[in-house]
Amino acid sequence: MALILILETATKNCSVALSENGNVIESIDFNDGNFSHSEKLHVFIEDICTKSQRKLEDLDAIAVSKGPGSYTGLRIGASSAKGLCYGLNIPLISLETLEILCRTYTSMHKINKNDLIIPMIDARRMEVYTTIFDADFNKIKDTEALILKEDSFDVYLNQYTCHFIGDGAEKSKELYESKNSKFEPSVYPSAAAVAKLAQSAFENEKFEDVAYFEPYYLKDFVDGKKK
């Protein structure tokens, strides 16, 4: 028996799920096009606890999206998860954001066993955070901050059907549109899609050090405010 709170704040989607033994009990996804995690996250945590008639003290672990993604979003998610884990004396689980995005997509769309999934999170201009997964969620390319070029994925598009997903896929469409490409830029990572993944990590005791855990930013923070 494991009751796990899952937090996903790496993109514009503020997502919270409560799972028991790998099954989602309650979940909330909120995306108004802005980063409203600081105002919404703890409200959503309280809401799903109330709806499920559970208390924070009932939790066995907390899972958090570790990145890459929005610097501020990741900081909010990690800080909240670490604070709760420390206060409740329960373990912390981290899950890769791009895998969460892929699992969210496949929970809504059918893919073939030989297809590739290319998640993309917008990193400004023509840059994205990306990697490549096969249909079984095995990573076949290292995660990177990639400046998109016309030939970036030629070797894969020549052999496989490639699903470009996430908010970074919008700017990839004009570069990689072909008979072997599919695009879904409207999908965002959802905490509810990784309940079983979090449960597996809990059972295998894949825990982070609460005191020293830091999100996987991939790039240094750049202040986007106008001077």
Write up this protein:
With 227 residues, the protein is an alpha/beta fold. The chain folds into two domains: 3-97 and 189-203, ATPase, nucleotide binding domain (Nucleotidyltransferase, domain 5); 109-184, Nucleotidyltransferase, domain 5 (2-Layer Sandwich). Helices cover 27% and strands 27% of the residues. The chain has six helices and ten strands; from the N terminus they run E-E-E-H-E-H-E-H-E-E-E-H-E-H-E-H. It has helices at residues 37-52, 71-88, 97-106, 154-157, 173-176, 195-203; strands spanning 3-8, 14-20, 23-30, 61-65, 92-95, 116-122, 127-134, 139-147, 162-165, 181-184. The strands form two sheets. A five-stranded mixed sheet has the order 3-2-1-4-5, sandwiched between helices. A hairpin with a 5-residue loop joins strand 1 and strand 2. Helix 1 (37-52) packs across helix 2. The protein is globular, with a radius of gyration of 17 Å. 42% of the residues are buried. The mean pLDDT is 94.
H/E element sequence: EEEHEHEHEEEHEHEH
CATH superfamily of the largest domain, by name, is ATPase, nucleotide binding domain
Number of domains: 2
CATH architecture of the largest domain: 2-Layer Sandwich
Instruction: Identify low-pLDDT runs.
Output: none
Specify Rg, calculated over alpha carbons: 17 Å
Strand line-up in the sheet with most strands: 3-2-1-4-5
| CATH topology heading of the largest domain | Nucleotidyltransferase, domain 5
Provide the structure class: alpha/beta
Biggest β-sheet: count, sense, barrel? 5 strands, mixed
Principal-axis shape equals globular
